Amino acid sequence: MTGLPLVGITSYLERAAWGVWDQPAALIPQLYVDAVTAAGAVPVLLPPQPTGGVPEALMARLDGLVVAGGPDVDPARYGARPHERTGAPHPPRDDWEFALVRAALAAGLPLLGVCRGLQVLNVALGGDLVQHLPDRIGEQSHQVAPATFHRRVVRTEPDSRLAGILGGQAEVLCYHHQAVDRIGTGLRPVAWSADGTVEALELPGARFALGVQWHPEADPGDPRLFRSFVNAVEEKTS
């Protein structure tokens, strides 16, 4: 390997204010940048933009892809009507991230999906989502309050890649009101919370294609997931 690997991180496209400015901006929580950097890679911001062959060209230059958390996926992507608690759609971001995920999988690029990123991976491969998890489980422990992560324990599938990284169970930081329901083609559930919610999916046979419903970037005291991802990235580039 001749240098540090490049890892793309998908970003928000939102109105933001800084200094004297208030205008649309491509942004990402610094936690993602710090997690990728601490794991030994160089983060590259990937803001939503017209696709037109760009995702495929990016795969030739990037060494790995992180699909970050964010707003709800448009239910039209999996043939459903929006629930009253589902957030407004973000078509540019959906278009961009779905195209990136498919291009990364086609190119064999290591991929890590975080929260929304897990959901994008599942829907991109033909799965669907529970649009408001409290309707399914009867309580709100997966999203206890605005902008508040909640620690919970997940158990992992014993023979999975995820179990090899985290062991039989792990304490993770959750913040989501949606979850995967029907599993996308080829994906395998590999972690669950005590209420039965699927918390992680893997794509068997891929170099590294893993999505988690929690937020490992928000837990710098446990860098195992990002380190394992970047290890797979380094193996690709060596």
The helix-and-strand class reads: alpha/beta
One letter per element, helices H and strands E, the order comes to EEEHEHEHEHEHEHEEEEEH
Give the overall shape, derived from the CA principal axes: globular
Low-confidence segments:
none
Q: What is the count of helical runs?
A: 7
Which CATH class is shown? Alpha Beta
Key terms:
238 residues; alpha/beta; Rossmann fold; 9-stranded mixed beta sheet; two-stranded antiparallel ribbon; 7 helices; 28% helix
Write the layout of secondary structure elements.
Elements: E1 6-10, E2 12-18, E3 21-27, H1 30-38, E4 42-46, H2 54-59, E5 64-67, H3 91-107, E6 111-114, H4 116-124, E7 129-130, H5 133-137, E8 150-156, H6 161-166, E9 169-174, E10 179-180, E11 188-193, E12 198-202, E13 209-212, H7 224-237
Parallel strand pairs: 1-4, 1-5, 5-6, 6-13
Antiparallel strand pairs: 2-3, 7-10, 8-9, 8-11, 11-12, 12-13
Provide a quick synopsis of the model.
This protein has 238 residues and is of the alpha/beta class.
Polypeptide structure, described:
The chain is α/β, with parallel strands linked by helices. It has a single domain, classed as Rossmann fold. Helix content is 28%, strand content 27%. The protein has helices at 30-38, 54-59, 91-107, 116-124, 133-137, 161-166, 224-237; strands spanning 6-10, 12-18, 21-27, 42-46, 64-67, 111-114, 129-130, 150-156, 169-174, 179-180, 188-193, 198-202, 209-212. A hairpin with a 6-residue loop joins strand 12 and strand 13. Helix 3 (91-107) crosses helix 4 (116-124).
